[in-house]
Amino acid sequence: MKRDAVFLLISSLIFAISAFAQVSLPEKRGALLEKSERLNVHSAPEEMQMRLNLLEDPFHWPVLEEPEIVEEIPAGPSDEEILFEISRLIRPGGVLSRGSETLLIVGERRIAVGDYVKINYNGESYKVQLVKADPQAFVLRLNDEQITKRMR
After folding, report:
1. Is residue 96 part of a domain?
2. Is residue 30 helix, strand or coil?
3. Does some domain include residue 55?
């Protein structure tokens, strides 16, 4: 059974190779080469050549010059500076722990660890997060900046 399948496969391959491997006759090739020479245009008419020269290469873009910076905008205070000033305004009264929740007491407010507090400073509103609070210190975060302040 296997031998028949192998024989059939080999004979099919031989037939396929022989069908594609045939070389055309020299007369037939000569006629085809002559026809291709007649169709081959070695140079375009002058008008067409001028139009082709106007086309831009779609694969290469011109290098653009960097625009000059006319005026630099003065940078405002960094997050670290803002957080330092905000932390000076916070005067905690203590820390309260209820179960697993820790609260920082600031005036009448109780701020849980992880909560965000909206604070206005110099006409801007900032969201500051309470990261950690214990009886000795508390940690505040503004964006990527953190600051640790001792309890007073």
Report:
1. yes
2. helix
3. no
| Residue 117 domain boundaries | 79-150
Exposure of 136 in the CB half-sphere (CA atoms within 13 A): 0
Q: How many separate domains does the chain show? A: 1
Q: Note whether residue 89 is domain-resident.
A: yes
pLDDT digits (tens, 9 = 90+) for 135-150: 888 899 988 889 888 8
124-133 and 116-121 beta bridge pairing: antiparallel
- Take residue 54 and report the two structure tokens written for it: 């106007």
Is the separation of the CB atoms in 104 and 110 below 8 Å?
Answer: yes
The span from the CA of 59 to the CA of 56, in Å, is 9
With H, G, I as helix, E, B as strand and everything else as coil, classify residue 27. helix
* Whole-model pTM over 0.70: no
In a domain, 74, yes or no: no
Q: What is the three-class DSSP state of 118?
A: strand
Residue 149: name the closest of 65, 67, 92 by CA. Answer: 92
pLDDT in tens, 6-51: 777 777 777 666 666 667 777 878 888 888 777 776 666 788 888 8
